[in-house]
Amino acid sequence: MARALELAALGLFTATPNPRVGCVLVRDGVVVGEGWHRKAGEPHAEANALAAAGDKARGATAYVSLEPCKHFGRTPPCVDALINADVSRVVAAMRDPNPEGSGGGAKLEAAGIRFESGLMEDEARELNIGFVSRMTRARPWVRMKIAASLDGRTALANGKSQWITGPEARKDGHRWRARACAVLTGIGTVTADDPRLNVREVETTRQPLRVIIDSRLETPLTARILDGGPVLVFCAQDKAAERAALEARGAEVVLLPNASGKVELPDMLAALASRGINELHVEAGVKLNGSLVREGCVDEFLVYLAPSLLGDAAQGMASLTAMASLDERVKLAFHSVERVGPDLRILARVQEA
To answer: How far apart are CA 192 and CA 183, in angstroms?
Structure first.
C-alpha cells in the first residue's frame, strides 16, 4: 500500500479534479503490475495496473489507495475491470467519499472477490484532503499561505514585502501552488503587488485557476494576473462596462454579493466546489485573510517564518476583530514544522469548535 500511495502522489499536480490514486497488483509475493491516475479523462490507476500485468493479474491482490469506483464517468468502472481480470482480493486504503463512486467494495464482494479497507487510511486521506472536502462538505480544502517575520509581520508599513523569506521557501510555496486547483487573492494584492500568481519555480504541466475577489470590479486591465491562463473574478457589484472589459481580457466574472456589499465568501467556496476545485490556495493581504478567517473559510495555514523582526508598524498576518477573552481565539493544531532553507515552514490546521 505504501507503494500505491507513492504512485498516487505522482498525480499530485495533474489528477485534479479527480482524486490522486495508485494501484499495485501482487501475485505470489511478486509485483506484477503498477499504475496511477494521471489526469481526468485518462485511465484510472486500476486500469493502468491491470494493463501492465496482463494475464498475471488473475488471482492477484490489488492494493489501491482509494476504493475502486463502480460508476461510469469519463472512463468505465474500475470494479468491472478488476472482476473481469479475475483478481482474488482488493485492499483499499480508504472508502470513496464520492457518493457516485462509492460502493465498489460491495460490488466486488458480490462477485466473490475479497475486499478490505483501512490500510494506511490516514495517509490516503492526507493525499486527497481536498477531494474528500469537496465530496463531504461541498467546499474545497482552503489553505492560506503566509510569509512572515518571526514577529508575525508580512510587509512593512509601506507595503513592501519582497522578500521576507528566502528563495528556498519561495520555491516550496510554488510547489503548494502547483498542487492546488486554484489560487485566490484579493483586489488589494492585485493593485499593490501586481502578482502573476502562476507556478514558475517548479515544473508543472498544469496551471491552477486564478481567482480574484474584487467586490467593485476594480481589477486593472493591465494586471499581470489576467495574462496566461483562466481567471475567475468574484464581485459584489455588477458594473456592466467593467464586467465587459474584464471578459474581453479573458476573465470570467461571477456576481455573488452579501448584505454588506462584499463577496459572500462561503457561497464563493461552494461555487468553486461546483467547478471541481478540490484545494484552494490563498495568497492575499491582511484584510482578505482576516475576512476569510472570521467567516470560517480557512482550513489550514501554510506559514513560512523568517528569522527576522519587522516591528509593530509593519503589517500583520490577518486583520481580526478585537477579542475580549482568550476563549474567542482561533484555535489551531500544528500539523508539521520543518526547516526550509533558513526559514521555518509551519502547517497548522484550524480546530473545530
So the answer is: 17
Residues 185 and 156 in one domain: yes
Distance CA 70, CA 66 (A): 12
Residue corresponding to grid cell 489551531: 332
The pLDDT of residue 353 is: 58
201 noted as active-site residue: no
pLDDT for residue 328 = 83
Q: Do 193 and 110 have their domain in common?
A: no
Secondary structure of 103-132 as H, E, C letters: CHHHHHHHCCCEEEECCCHHHHHHHCHHHH
Q: Which are the contacts of 50, defined by CB distance < 8 A and separation ≥ 6?
A: 25, 33, 35, 57, 81, 82, 85
Q: Largest Cα–Cα distance of the chain, in whole Å?
A: 69
- Quote the domain boundaries for residue 23: 2-127
How far the first Cα of the chain sits from its last, in Å, is 34
Sign of CA dihedral 138, 256, 303, 290: negative
Positions in the chain short of pLDDT 70: 353
**What DSSP element (H or E) covers 189?**
helix 187-193
Prediction pTM value: 0.93
Q: Are residues 110 and 254 in the same domain?
A: no
Q: Are residues 136 and 263 in the same domain?
A: yes
**CA–CA gap between residue 46 and residue 105 (Å, rounded):** 14
Count the domains in the chain.
2
Euclidean distance between CA atoms 309 and 332, whole angstroms: 23
Given the residues 6, 34, 42, 46, select the one marked as catalytic: 46
Give Cα 312 to chain centroid, integer Å: 33
Provide the pLDDT for residue 322: 85
